[in-house]
Specification:
The protein has 231 residues and is α/β, with parallel strands linked by helices. It is built from 9 helices and 8 strands. A 6-stranded parallel beta sheet has the order 2-1-3-4-7-8, with helices on both faces.
């Protein structure tokens, strides 16, 4: 299976480095693109929006033979969901890593501090305590050393969705900071942020208790969860 892994804000494709060995050892072909604005030499972030990242992943999906599994971490989940909306017949499953499929018109995060055309990785005090669980000082230093400013347009551009066939694509949510019970209650209660989940034909939820960056804090467990979803 072709597995396309979409990193969240501030991270490039290499940030999956502790997760991918188990996937390739299982026989899968893994693609870990670094998206526009975070590639070596990218200095002009103007004009780069959410759709720019969606189009970059669509190029991969269109180039490979056979269906793909999309893995989206954090903000990368919105990219994955838009790709599933554009190519539902080509996507075998979407795996959201501490992320959810937000509805059309929503921004990934329009509250992040913007500097020019980018969003640098904020100080750790900006994040909630739940985000930082298991993220040791060593891991924080590693994260900050590889972090790239996220194009501001990716954070604030509204999500574009229009193909209801996306709801037929099986979805797995790997929940790190929230429980399955919380998600199920939101669906049952009609929470607006859970509206996409409520319309899915197939939804699996796997709990992986840790902070917001399991590719750093629990990479082996995350790999196993992804493999289970793919299988």
């Amino acid at each position: 299976m072709n597995i396309v892994m979409i990193a969240g804000f501030w991270l490039d494709g290499d940030s999956w480095g502790d997760v991918t060995p188990a996937l390739t050892a299982a026989g899968h072909t893994v693609h870990t693109p670094t998206l526009p604005g975070k590639r070596p030499g990218d200095t002009d972030l103007s004009g780069i929006g959410l759709r720019t990242h969606v189009d970059a992943v669509l190029e991969i999906v269109d180039a490979v033979d056979g269906p793909v599994v999309l893995v989206g971490h954090s903000g990368g989940g919105s990219v994955a969901w838009a790709v599933a909306d554009a190519r539902p017949d080509a996507v075998a499953r979407v795996v959201f890593v501490d992320a959810l499929p937000f509805p059309a018109g929503s921004a990934i995060n329009d509250e992040l501090p913007v500097e020019g055309d980018g969003v640098p990785l904020p100080d750790w005090g900006f994040f909630e305590a739940e985000d930082l669980v298991d993220l040791t000082d060593e891991l924080r230093d590693r994260f900050r050393a590889i972090a790239k400013p996220e194009p501001a347009g990716v954070a604030v551009e509204p999500q574009q969705l229009g193909n209801e066939s996306r709801f037929s694509v099986p979805v797995t949510v790997i929940a790190c900071e929230f429980t399955e019970a919380t998600i199920r209650a939101a669906i049952t209660g009609g929470a607006p942020w859970a509206s996409e989940l409520a319309s899915l034909a197939s939804l699996d939820i796997v709990e992986l208790p840790t902070g917001h960056w399991p590719q750093f804090t629990k990479p082996v467990e995350l790999a196993h969860a992804i493999l289970a979803a793919v299988d």
